[in-house]
Every structure is written in C-alpha cells, then in structure tokens.
Design brief:
alpha/beta; seven-stranded mixed beta sheet; Aminopeptidase; 16% strand; N-FG_amidohydro; single chain; globular
Length: 244
C-alpha cells in the first residue's frame, strides 16, 4: 500500500512545506466512474503545485510533505465532517464512483494517516513557518468568472505571515489576492490544524495554474517563493514572540 505522504527531507528546519493536492493518483481498487482525462484537470490535482513544492524544497533545502492521492478520492484539505471531503461532483463533473464510497474507510485509509504524519513532523521539527502550496484554475468551467490574480495568500485568524507576504508579492509586481480566489477563513483545514493550533505562523500560497504548467514557470515561481520565504523569515524574526 502506498504511503499517504511523500516526505522530502531538508537541513533547514525552520520552514516546513506542505502540498495537500500534489497528486492525481487513484488506487487501483477505487473506481471513480470517470473518464481518465478528468484526472489531468484541476478537480483532480493542483496543477503544478507538487512540482513547485519539490523545486522549492530543493532550493531552500527545507523539508516538504506531499500528499500521494487525488483530491477526487478524498480531499485531504478538508475537515473529516466537511460535505466535500469525498466529492460527488466537482466543477460540474460527476464522480459517480464516490456516491456509495465508505466514508469511514476512506478517512481511515487516507485522511487520518496523512494528518498523523503531518502532526508527527510538526512535533518533531517545530518549524517557525509553514508554507502550504496550492494552485487554482484561471476560470471555473461551470459558472465561473475570470480570476485576475496571479497568486493568492490565504489565511485564517493568524495574519503574521500573511500581511508581509501580500506586501512582498505586490511590491514584486504580482497581482496578489488577499484571501482570494477564496477565503482561508472558510477553507484552511490543514493549516488550522497543524499551524495555527500550534501557534506557528503560516500561509497557503495559491498560484494560478497557467503560470506553473511548464518547467520555466515552475522555476520562476520556486525562485519567487524562495525569496518570499527568506523575507518572511526576516519579518517574523523582527516580530517575536511567534506564539499567538
């Protein structure tokens, strides 16, 4: 059985990278009842996010935790009781194989071990900053409007990393969303649990996926996020204590 998380080790222990939607993998014993082409869309995987996370981990020599199962099987970035944990429909596409899925079994097999692994890593590493890497589609297929942001910074109550991150990216010339294209006050499950609950500054970084679909885009954004991480290290160090 495949491990629920792919762990990249790194020497710089002050930052931990997370990618909840890094994979479009579906286990052989799960039939989603969909055409294979859907697995290449944003409804199955955060396009480019896994590659950016790996590139960023290498540049920063920082540990990273990447999920190994598609969000169409179970969305690891949702609370266990969330209605969209095991999606029956996503951006207008039906996922009929999930209609009779054993919710408890999927949680026990994928969600619980993934979050246990994150919790163990946070306890052992005790990072000073957690960065969660995601991507978003420029426009939803069904009922969507154009999303003008190149990158969005998502956060809940703790804005210690968010405010300087937004300022940094805007100063660099990026069209940056403040809790856009959706709000971290509504959807922030992983960071609520593993960062904010432990008093660790954190942000979710949402990159528009048309910007990270190729090697050059992935390289540009991993370079940008390395500079952002270094800037946040400095700003957080100047604003101790780091607990809320």
């Amino acid at each position: 059985m495949q491990a629920p998380v792919d762990i990249i080790e790194g020497k710089q222990q002050d930052v931990l990278l997370i990618c909840d939607h890094a994979s479009n993998a579906v286990p052989d014993d799960i039939d989603l009842g969909i055409v294979p082409e859907l697995l290449d869309l944003h409804i199955a995987v955060d396009i480019g996010a896994g590659a950016v996370t790996r590139s960023l981990a290498a540049r920063m020599d920082s540990p990273a935790m990447l999920a190994t199962v598609s969000r169409m099987v179970i969305d690891l970035h949702r609370e266990p009781d969330h209605i969209g944990l095991i999606p029956h429909r996503s951006d207008g596409h039906l996922i009929p194989g999930n209609e009779k899925a054993d919710r408890a079994e999927r949680i026990a097999r994928f969600h619980a071990p993934y979050h246990r692994a994150l919790a163990r890593r946070v306890r052992a590493q005790r990072p000073r900053l957690i960065l969660s890497i995601h991507s978003f589609t420029p426009r939803l297929e069904h009922g969507g409007t154009d999303r003008p942001w190149e990158v969005g910074i998502l956060y809940n109550r703790d804005a210690r990393a968010a405010r300087p991150a937004i300022d940094f990216l805007r100063q660099e010339g990026f069209v940056t969303g403040d809790n856009e294209p959706y709000s971290g006050r509504l959807l922030n499950a992983t960071l609520n649990r593993h960062a904010e609950a432990n008093g660790i500054p954190s942000i979710a970084i949402e990159i528009r996926n048309d910007l990270i679909r190729d090697v050059s885009g992935i390289g540009r954004w991993s370079q940008t996020l390395t500079a952002l991480a270094n800037s946040l290290r400095n700003s957080l160090a100047q604003n101790r204590p780091l607990t809320t």
